[in-house]
Amino acid sequence: MGKHGGPTTPDEEAAAASEDAEPTGPPSRRRRTVLLAVGVVVGAVVVAGGWVAWRGQQAASALTAAQGELAYARDALQTGDVTAARSHLTQAQRETSDARRLTSGPVFGAARLVPLLGQTPRAVATVSVVADDLTHGPMADLVEAGIALDPRTLRVSGNRVDVEAFARAAPALASAEQGLRAAQSEIATLDVSATPMSVQDAVSRLQQELDGLVPTTAAAAKAAALVPPMLGADRPREYFLALQSNNEARGTGGFLGAFGVVRFDNGKVTIERLAARSVLDRYTWKTPPVDFGPDYQALYGDQPASWTSANLSPHYPYAAQLWRRMYAQSTGTTVDGVITVDPVALSYLLAVTGPVVLPDGRVIDSKNLVPFTENEIYGVISDDAKRDEYLQTIAKAAFKKILSGEGSPRRLLDALGRAAGERRLLLWSADPSEERVLATTSVGGVIPTGPQPFAGLAVINAAGNKLDYYLRQSLDYRLESCSADGSRATSLTVTLRNTARPGADLPAYVDSRLDLPYGPGGLPQQRGGDQFVYAQVYGSQGALLDSASLDGRPVDVAVGTERGKPVFRVPVTIPAGGEVTLVLRLAEPALPSGTDPTPLTFVTPLVQPTSVTADAQGCPSQG
Length: 623
Known about the structure:
The protein is an alpha+beta fold. It is built from 17 helices and 22 strands. The protein has a 6-stranded mixed β-sheet with strand order 17-16-20-12-11-22, with no helix packed on it.
């Protein structure tokens, strides 16, 4: 039948036969065109893919070589070989420029646009660009800053520092920090989920290196900006020097055993005065001379109205301000800031400079400084005045040695950095702009505000003795569970161990328990090395106490607030040779969106080693 229902014509039958028949000869022109196009595309993809892979491998090799050159540059800086450092940096720049060139151009650019498959070339190209920008920008700045701040040239003389070197390095360090943060952001946005493991590992390593380098550079930039004015580049500065004794614990470390005045004049450091704290004890206050608000008053009352209790709080700026005001009211001298150190910090420095020999022939070195001054001296010299005088002799000899110029400058800086990291070297400035920067560093000794997870432990001696020399402490912060709303159940575990030997015959000055009623003859009681302290534990902002136990038994807890953080205080007795464990279980609120879930921690620095562990795992944040 035809199209309209009539008879089929010969032409229609031929057309129908032509449409239904399978081709038996060579492909039609249309089919040949399609196959040719597909072949060209496939061939191009194969060729381009191989070309991209080959270029990518060359770029990876160049980046590996650049990484090695930067390591050589760092080593050269540490040995003071400026020429070699710059030479290795130049070679690193050549390598990263090659990597950038190899991963640019139209073919590589087109490969980056291919859905899913383009992740690998895109990642390699991005890393190459970031690396090239780093070597020509931040890394070049860091090399020049490292040359300017070479520790061997920073010390002009024994007690003088080249403050102009810090001023010269400050702009380069600030520029380096800015460039590193930009690179960190660029790498953080890179999607490598569908790339080979080798690419993922390379990106992860670069990310880790940047994550470590950014805070280090930021700290160096802050220091370079702060050091010149604080060391008297513009005018002489004087600081109250607080020498803490860790054998009687306070929030910032230990009680004020001695004091001094340090003067900085255009980088020159001199100890203007060094004396026992007892010469200041005739000045007394009924209430703290600085008001820090109702939360502070509720926690500490009027106890901080004395030289030895001004540092009950672990927030160092509180103690510094009180000491500064007390010193001004006592002597009429207003200082520009406060510096605090302890014997352990001084021992780190003596390990670099070498021992000191006292007038009586006694040798004091890094190993015996702490045990002798914090413990043994009480059995050697029983008279308080004579003991204070001898301790001043040791302190003066130690500071003289440290300022003499002996020892490796780099190792001295390392020792100072270690002391600051352990909160054994603290600094507060009366200049608000300087203090704002100091407060963001470890040397500031600040309890931070804000919602980031937080755990802290301050141990405060409650017996008025010197038994904290024997105290070991640990703090463990754990995330136990997360709720659907993002709130967290956490635990804080504090372990306190008394290493005093049970039954030891300790000097009365070390072992006296002034918290107890006096015994026969009006003398303080001794309890054979048993310690009595307050464990003052800090939690995250908004945390509430669910339960508390001491050695597995429920315990009463006094709850307060400091700088927006909950404070849980528990009186604890630790028998000689014994150990106690305090466990606090908390309910913490959900973290605001964008809050870093990594916990911030601190522990009061004492003589014995301290262990701090914190669970970095976080719950999903809430917007």
